[in-house]
Design goal:
The chain is an alpha+beta fold. It has helices at 3-26, 31-56, 79-87, 92-95, 261-270, 275-302, 322-344, 357-365; strands at residues 96-100, 105-115, 121-123, 139-142, 150-155, 165-170, 173-180, 186-188, 198-203, 206-212, 221-225, 239-249, 251-260, 307-311, 352-355, 372-374, 384-388, 391-395, 403-407, 418-428, 432-433, 440-453, 459-465.
Length: 475
């Protein structure tokens, strides 16, 4: 067992650590992602303990929850145990990359790739790739076969055989293609060129392409590309990575509590309620809800993309349109997933749905055969409502009526719509006495965390206008 797992087990105990690992892996997209998340949680706790030693240790004050990992609490409230559980029970890992940071505000590095010859962005961290190997050779040229029956292309470097390709257009309409055969001639769409057309791959340090246009051809432009000889170093295009940064900032999450020693004593004497566990559960639940709400705020409030609509209002259940409604809804989700892939250029599969209550009703209208499984163990209204094709659907009241958001988190866990930055693990506040009622005292916890939008390209928003008899109407 490594040091970080030891740290987690010292907080949760052996059985608690096993459940923690189970939940950790459940909401990780891969083993590597689970490893990074475990590391982030442990480092966040280590940050807290270091600050405790550096600042508060001098005065012997035990303000941080982590001052004693065996009890990890003040007045018996197992704050750390509750919060460690919450680390893997919130919805944050569905929509966010979770990483530890070393300061309240920090820049998170990512890399975009550019080509050397033109300094063009060719492979962004998120977004459409551009073919880079032939950036130099991809050229658009105006042609007029009727008045200029021959077009000659002279390249400054030898051309690698079987790499020349030209597309011939009439306006914006593709007329045909031309590809060299590796032996100095071409394979071409009939009616484009004459048999006398040729390509000389190397004449010294150059190459020549001669295209004799077929009689009667109507065309206005040609777009061609080729790969040049690798020995022509001056013309060789290369890619390079440019480091860029996301700005992330954290702010306190505060959960204050007030306890009454008389009530605690009475509960302890009766042996009915464990007051320590009661307060630990309260802290856990409140902390989880705050983190979840920050996810909703960042995802819904930070989205800047388009919204796509499906109007199902013309169909009703009473009229027997069950199959039509379900098929249309499933088709909408499939089309949205294709749009997500087009935006990211990464073959993106939806890894998390956010749905308002009306949209959840439509999800719930499906059955197991449609890929739908309802979460019967949900403990909170704004929680995982169910799974569609094994992808979690989270109910969210912050969306507009009938709205759904599809999100993608990459398989390696490095990229997601949101970035969950964790600076300080939940930290106990000092005890504050209530001088008007001496049996009461206030304490609580706070953490330093931030959830920021990284890119709307990893999201697609839908709006479904539901059938009139699919929504609950108040009388």
């Amino acid at each position: 067992m490594n040091t970080r797992q030891n740290l987690i087990q010292s907080i949760l105990g052996e059985k608690g650590a096993e459940k923690f690992e189970e939940r950790l892996k459940m909401f990780s997209v891969s083993d590597t992602d689970a490893q990074f998340r475990r590391k982030a949680f442990a480092q966040t706790i280590e940050n807290t303990l270091e600050i405790n030693d550096m600042v508060l240790g001098k005065s012997k004050r035990s303000t941080f929850a982590g001052a004693s990992l065996s009890s990890a609490n003040l007045a018996g409230t197992s704050i750390y145990a509750g919060v460690m559980r919450s680390f893997v029970q919130s919805i944050a890992p569905i929509f966010a990359v979770q990483r530890n940071i070393d300061a309240p505000e920090q820049k998170i590095m990512y890399v975009d790739f550019y080509d050397i010859l033109n300094n063009n962005l060719i492979v962004p961290n998120i977004g459409p790739d551009q073919a880079w190997a032939d950036q130099k050779s991809r050229v658009t040229e105006t042609i007029d076969p009727g008045n200029t029956p021959t077009t000659t292309i002279t390249a400054g470097s030898p051309i690698v055989p079987k790499t020349f390709k030209a597309e011939i257009y009439n306006g914006n309409t593709l007329v045909g293609t031309i590809i060299d055969d590796g032996a100095g001639k071409f394979f071409a769409t009939p009616g484009l060129i004459l048999a006398t057309s040729s390509i000389v791959y190397q004449t010294g340090s150059a190459a020549t392409v001669t295209l004799n246009w077929a009689t009667g051809l109507t065309a206005t432009k040609m777009i061609y590309a080729a790969v040049y000889d690798q020995s022509a170093k001056a013309e060789l295009n290369k890619a390079y990575g440019m480091t860029k940064y996301y700005d992330v900032a954290t702010s306190p999450i505060l959960v204050p509590v007030e306890r009454n020693v008389i009530s605690d004593h009475a509960m302890a004497k009766q042996g009915i309620i464990d007051s320590d566990e009661l307060y630990a559960n309260f802290v856990e639940n409140e902390y989880t809800k705050v983190v979840n709400q920050r996810v909703f705020d960042a995802l819904v409030g930070g989205y800047t993309g388009d919204t796509y609509q499906l109007d199902l209002s013309a169909f009703t259940l009473a009229s027997g349109f069950y199959d039509t409604i379900v098929r249309s809804f499933k088709s909408l989700l499939a089309q949205a997933e294709n749009q997500l892939a087009a935006q990211t250029y990464k073959g993106a599969k939806c890894t998390g749905y956010l749905a308002d209550p009306v949209a959840c009703n439509i999800f719930d209208y499906m059955v197991a055969g449609d890929g739908w499984v309802k979460n019967i163990n949900s403990t909170y209204y704004k929680d995982i409502f169910g799974w569609y094709n094994d992808v979690p659907v989270v109910r969210c009241t912050d969306l507009g009526q009938g709205e759904i958001m599809l999100t993608h988190r990459t398989a390696d866990g490095y990229v997601a719509p949101l970035y969950h930055a964790m600076f300080l693990a939940p930290t106990e506040l000092p005890v504050v006495a209530n001088y008007q009622n001496m049996t009461k005292y206030a304490t609580g916890m706070y953490s330093m965390e931030g959830i920021n939008m990284s890119s709307s390209k990893l999201c697609v928003k839908l709006k479904v206008i539901a059938p009139s008899d699919l929504t609950l109407t108040k009388l």
